[in-house]
Amino acid sequence: MPRIEVNRSGEMEAFVQVVDRGSFSAGARVLGMTPSAISKLIGRLETRLATQLVHRSTRKLQLTPEGGQFYERSVRVLADMDEAERCAAAGAMPRGRVSINASVPFGQHVLIPLVPRFLELHPQVTLDIVLTDRVVDLMEERTDVAIRWGELPPSDLVARRLGATGQAIVGSPDYLKRHGTPRTPQELEAHNRLGFNYRRSVPDWPLRVDGRVIDMPIAGNVRCGDGETLRALITSGIGLARMSLYHIQSDIDAGRLVRVMEEFNPGDEAPIHAVYLGKAGRLPARVRALLDFLVAHVADNGRPRP
Questions:
Q1: CATH number of the domain bearing residue 35
Q2: CA 257 to CA 175: how far, in whole Å?
Q3: What is the C-alpha separation between 290 and 188, in angstroms, rounded?
Q4: Is 1 contained in some domain?
Q5: 137 with 277, same domain?
Q6: Cβ atoms of 296 and 103 closer than 8 Å
Q7: Rounded Cα distance, 101 and 146, in Å
Q8: What are the angstrom distances between the C-alpha of 72 and each of 63, 206, 221?
Q9: pLDDT of 77-119, one tens digit each?
Q10: Residues 257 and 199 in one domain
Q11: Which residue among 88, 104, 127 closes a domain?
């Protein structure tokens, strides 16, 4: 009788992901499978084991007692396999392609300056860099790591914090010479306040007035889809903008931009994270190398360490 090949570790991985994520559809997204395919896989596993592992009659996934035992043992087995592979590969250099997505400002002002250092440390790794201010779907775009700015919404992504950045209202010396420097929220209303037009952009600038935060609506004659374009516009003297300090600090230091309304700055900071699919212990060495490098070389203020 011919022997039927069974990928037991693959079945365990699929079962554990379904339990960890709480549903067949969520587990399927992590594994790059369709919900029907992962449902059939779990069904074949139950048939082979001759026991029911999960109840499918309710919207919330429920384990049977046998399913609970199989889950606990599967987690231990997969952890042992991961540990065995890590030990075997401990002396191996990370190698292969890593796809990273970042916003245009983070890419140009933080990531690109760090690339030579990373490639010097990991010459066998090839970086595939995509810069866009659009929030991408990591699975659809086949992206290993994405850099996200701001508070993260609930998702299946794993995040590692890189730092945080404050923000400031800035304008060019030429603009301020022609239009005056605003000193109060009332004076600010008369200025050309430029902003963003992408979906997640905020329509207001927060200002702290008499101990409370008020919102100043953005009202200007230009809106942009990326931060680098907005930075170019304000340095050319078109108007004012509220931007992240990691993006414009070099312009402030060089005198190309001037901070205004600092008395009313609420001091809010936006976190910067590297996000990815999967669990840290199961990442390929090439992806783990990039994540560890970013954590070590991006400063707390979101700028590259010297």
A1: 1.10.10.10
A2: 10
A3: 43
A4: no
A5: yes
A6: no
A7: 5
A8: 11, 49, 59
A9: 888 777 676 666 555 678 899 999 999 999 999 999 999 999 9
A10: yes
A11: 88
3-state secondary structure of 156: coil
Is residue 223 exposed (0-12), middle (13-18) or buried (19+ Cβ within 10 Å)? Answer: middle
Domain count, the chain: 3
In a shared domain, residues 169 and 265: yes
Residue 45 covered by a domain: yes
Tell which residue, 286, 284, 291, has the closest CA to residue 126: 286
Q: What is the pLDDT of residues 217-250, one digit of tens each?
A: 999 899 988 889 999 999 999 999 999 998 999 9
104 and 249 share one domain? no
User: How far apart are the C-alpha atoms of 38 and 21, rounded to whole Å?
Assistant: 13
155 and 277 belong to one structural domain: yes
Distance CA 63, CA 69 (A): 9
Residue carrying structure tokens 């301020």: 176
136 within some domain: yes
Report d(CA 298, CA 164) in Å as an integer: 10
Residue pLDDT, tens place only, 162-208: 999 999 999 999 999 999 999 999 999 999 999 988 766 678 899 99
Pairwise pLDDT comparison (159 vs 198), residue with the higher score: 159
One domain, residues 178 and 149:
no
Identify the three-state secondary structure at position 214: strand
Best mean pLDDT range from 33-47, 51-65, 171-185? 171-185
